[in-house]
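Repro:
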Amino acid sequence: MKAALVGAGGELLHQARRATGRERGPDAVVEGILDFAAELRAHGADRFGEPATAAGVAVPGIVDEPRGVAAYSANLGWRDVPLRDLLSRRLGVPVALGHDVRTGGLAEGRIGAGRGADRFLFVPLGTGIAGAIGIAGRVEAGAHGFAGEIGHIVVRPGGAPCPCGQAGCLERYASAAAVSEAWAAAAGDPGADAADCAKAVASGDPNAVRVWQEAVDALADGLVTALTLLDPRTLIIGGGLAEAGETLFTPLREAVGRRVTFQKLPSIVPAALGDAAGCLGAGLLAWDLLDSTDLTTTDRTTTDRTEVTT
């Protein structure tokens, strides 16, 4: 879990992190979130002379944002957790609940790499692959909360089975986890990962170049499908795989460029906020709650901190 105190303009005022405690079960995870948020709010009061006035929380899995319910997370083991209400009762302040990738995309769009873009697509490449569709300063959740699941575009029909039930999904070929798995097999080293593969690519290792290019090609196939549907002005790539820098971005830009025909090629840029994006985005969700209450100018000068758990 990562947490932060965030100012009205997206300033990162304080950060903290701790383990989820998921080995103790889903109820312990929820209690850990509530405790962490309460401690952070108390820290804000001690350090800044006033407690946070709203909170935002971003979680993985399926999120019912309008109802404030964390509907499902395989990694955390929970179902239908009314997290917004639980946190609001614990803290006594308004609470916003969001999806972790969409929340990170909100931050990248407003104050990060997509700042100023009217349409953007944020795609973090981590254990899996998801996406956040940015439109005029907000992120589209879709009719059922599933918008942006680019990792489950089928790019290799009949390929590797995916836990989602399909075969050949993008994240089975181009996520950091997929590259790690492929490079560990190619290198004969079970401990090798995607970062090791990127280093080997930079040194010219032909096996690494092959593994890397296969991932880049799959990623380009998925991204061009997304570009065809969404026509973003800026494509923001984040997550662990993006830390390879131009080892990723140079071949990726070339691969996407080769595939576009009538589509307009967007700017393809690295994410700017790193692993703080989720916290900052959750803070922005909380500030949006305060904005919706029509605070006066005087009120806003005294409510300049928000608490975030992600």
